[in-house]
Specification:
- The protein is an alpha/beta fold and about 675 residues long.
- It contains 17 helices and 24 strands.
- Helix 9 links the parallel strand 5 and strand 6.
- The structure holds beta-D-galactopyranose and zinc ion.
- Zinc ion binds next to helix 6.
Length: about 675
């Protein structure tokens, strides 16, 4: 079941167990009045649902589900495995996770569980089997969420003996023999050869240095373990209730588990969207691009519409707080989720909690329970956008450009960032942001995706390269695609070993029409780049490029390689291959996107900085979302054939306002 098959647009995350029963009726009535159609519950309620081993107390949850149903509200239930209760920990303290120093993480927060531990799996099997069996026949329960934000657990998952043993099994399956492991991990270096798999360890803290091939496999293993942990529960839920959907609340670019592979196992993906941040920088218009990217990425996990399972509903914060959302901002953020492909938006949380770690992660209702500004603003949003979301269900942006996203590349740069400030996601974002500023829709795709669906493929940091991927890029350009490759392409093989058969960028040299015999890590400096007589900046890295056939677009303007190419383009077959030898500053990235536009990549509309335009397309119908992320009135000129979806066409957009337009394409 995909989410476009569900007629649900708005919901809330609800924790009835945090409040006296006498309040539930008021909550349900206020929800109904707000337009809430669904709640998610129970993903942290293990101690109240199984207070003692095998003694299940599902009655209160039955009552809450029934009460909400009387108000027309349906339920998604979560399994509570991100917070095993104290009695389980007392019985089996060994299920608490171990950090890289071999120390246990203890009870008292959440995520105090090891995901490979066999004893914990038995607790989970008992609970989930009873839980799924009990709620399977309840027609008001429409779907499940396994655990909560899988991968949001520990710094680097768990290093306990159980996980270590699972790692060894994973390696046995991958390499077959210990000789093969030695070869692929390069254990000749520093005398790391193994004579038996039993000698291999989880990469705990070492005295000095670590093996990059071991670390890469460890990260892949951790992702696989989380996927298997999910499947373990999902199979129990599916078997008990084949008619209910399974989704999961992902966290944008969080990297612990491959969301592409997780998405494959779900009916649809969900995402938790907190523009106000998780104690990161404060909320302001400048995060609009990062928010947009996370939404596009979640859509990319299945190339389908999705749900927001937690959408910010007020001030965020645990020990320290973020800013209060300004009038209009909550609705703007929710509309941005819809603008990028959300079919339903569930707000976190219904009411600010009086107790526990998240007392200051505010809900729609304040602590007092008396409806205030968030309730009013979200109510207005629901009344306006409910009919819109119903129409756009399943509609997608129809992007002509895609960014290839790879967890393996990210892992490899986590392990060896090269430059202290280089991160994979930030580098990818230099491209995304420039496209975002021009309102050019873009999809995130995995390497396995069919490239031929796109006219433009941007593949940043293709550092780990292997023959099949190389062939895909080659074929894509040969058949007429526009491919953008970057610094650090073709450096290593899939085992994190440097490739030595040819100068960089290896097998794609002829496609790009160049070689990279040298490079320079820009420590505490940047490099000038000249393009058409203007000066820009490259950061963190310079590839020293020797064209064999490529035409320089821009050259370095400083350093000992001044005058040599920094960005190039090469005709290969029917297509074009670009190479970007540095991390582009925003102005340089803008200039680069200008080049793409001049080669036929069309923006949806031209708007002032801070005003975003997106598109959703279904059949011959298109919806355009125009979002003012700034606190100022903005003036926009939109294509005259766009028809206002509601209200009047206007060229002045008040602070944080969202306008929606439609367009019908002539039938061919
Ligand atoms: C999410 C999580 C919720 C809640 C929220 C606020 O990441 O799924 O359970 O913790 O953040 O911190
Ligand atoms: Zn473990």
């Amino acid at each position: 079941m995909e989410c476009r098959e569900l007629d649900i647009q708005f919901g809330v995350d609800y924790y009835p167990e945090h409040w006296p029963r006498e309040r539930w009726e008021t909550d349900a009535r206020l929800m109904e009045e707000l337009g809430v159609q669904v709640v998610r519950m129970a993903e942290f309620s293990w101690s109240r649902l199984e207070p003692e081993k095998g003694r299940f107390r599902f009655g209160w949850l039955d009552d809450a589900i029934a009460l909400l149903a009387r108000h027309g509200i349906r339920t998604v239930l979560g399994t509570p495995t991100a917070a095993p209760p104290a009695w389980i920990i007392a019985e089996n303290p060994e299920i608490q996770p171990m950090d890289a120093n071999g120390l246990r993480r203890h009870f008292g927060g959440r995520h105090h569980d090891c995901q490979s531990n066999a004893v914990y799996r038995e607790h989970i099997r008992r609970y989930v089997t009873a839980f799924a069996g009990h709620f399977a026949k309840n027609p008001n329960v429409i779907g499940w969420q396994v655990d909560n934000e899988l991968g949001n657990s520990h710094g680097d998952l768990c290093f306990c003996p159980s996980c270590e043993e699972r790692f060894r099994q994973w390696l046995r399956e991958k390499y077959g023999t210990v000789e093969s492991l030695n070869e692929h991990w390069g254990t000749v270096f520093w005398s790391q050869d193994y004579s038996d798999f039993s000698q291999v360890t989880a990469p705990r803290a070492t005295a000095a240095g670590q093996n990059p091939s071991q670390l890469l496999d460890w990260k892949r293993f951790c992702s696989d373990l989380v996927l298997e942990f999910h499947q373990f529960q999902a199979e129990i839920l599916r078997a008990a209730a084949p008619d209910k959907f399974i989704t999961h609340n992902m966290m944008g670019f969080s990297e612990k588990v491959s969301y592409f592979q997780l998405g494959d196992k779900l009916d649809f993906s969900s995402h938790d969207q907190y523009p106000g941040g998780h104690f990161r920088e404060g909320q302001n218009e400048l995060r609009a691009d990062a928010q947009a990217a996370e939404l596009d990425f979640i859509r990319g996990t299945r190339q389908k519409s999705f749900w927001i399972m937690e959408q910010q509903s007020s001030i965020t914060g645990w020990e320290v707080l973020g800013r209060a959302p300004k009038p209009g901002q909550l609705a703007l953020w929710a509309m941005q989720s819809a603008a990028h492909g959300a079919d339903a938006i569930v707000f976190f949380r219904w009411r600010s909690c009086a107790v526990g770690t998240e007392q200051y992660w505010h809900g729609i209702l304040p602590h007092s329970g008396v409806p205030g500004r968030s309730y009013r603003e979200i109510g207005q949003l629901i009344r306006r956008a409910g009919p819109l979301l119903r129409q756009v269900r399943g509609a997608l942006p129809q992007s002509r450009a895609a960014i290839v996203f790879s967890y393996d590349q990210e892992y490899a740069f986590d392990i060896q960032p090269h430059h202290p400030q280089l991160t994979y996601v930030d580098h990818v974002m230099t491209y995304y942001r420039a496209l975002f500023r021009r309102n050019i829709p873009v999809d995130f795709i995995r390497e396995e995706e069919d490239f031929s669906r796109y006219q433009w493929i941007i593949a940043p940091l293709q550092y780990l390269m292997y023959p099949e991927l190389e062939q895909k890029y080659r074929d894509y350009v040969r058949r007429g695609g526009n491919l953008v490759l970057t610094m650090r392409t073709g450096v290593k093989d899939a085992y994190n070993r440097c490739m030595c058969q040819a100068p960089l960028p290896g097998g794609l040299s002829d496609v790009l029409g160049l070689q990279v015999p040298e490079y320079d890590c820009l420590r505490e400096t940047s490099v000038e780049i000249q393009w058409d007589g203007r000066t820009y900046t490259g950061e963190k890295w310079s590839d020293l490029i020797e064209p064999t056939a490529a035409r320089p677009l821009a050259v370095y303007g400083s350093e000992f390689y001044a005058g040599t190419p920094a960005l190039t383009v090469n005709r290969f077959g029917e297509g074009r291959a670009y190479y970007v030898g540095t991390e582009m500053s925003p102005a340089l990235a803008d200039r680069f996107v200008e080049e793409m536009v001049s080669q036929g990549l069309e923006p949806l509309a031209s708007t002032p900085l801070g005003v975003e335009v997106t598109r959703r397309v279904s059949g011959n119908r298109r919806w355009y979302f125009v979002l003012n992320h700034t606190g100022q009135t903005q003036y926009v000129t939109l294509p005259p054939h766009w028809i206002p979806w509601d209200g009047q066409r206007r060229s002045t957009l008040p602070p944080f306002a969202v306008d929606v337009y439609t367009e019908e394409e002539e039938e061919a």
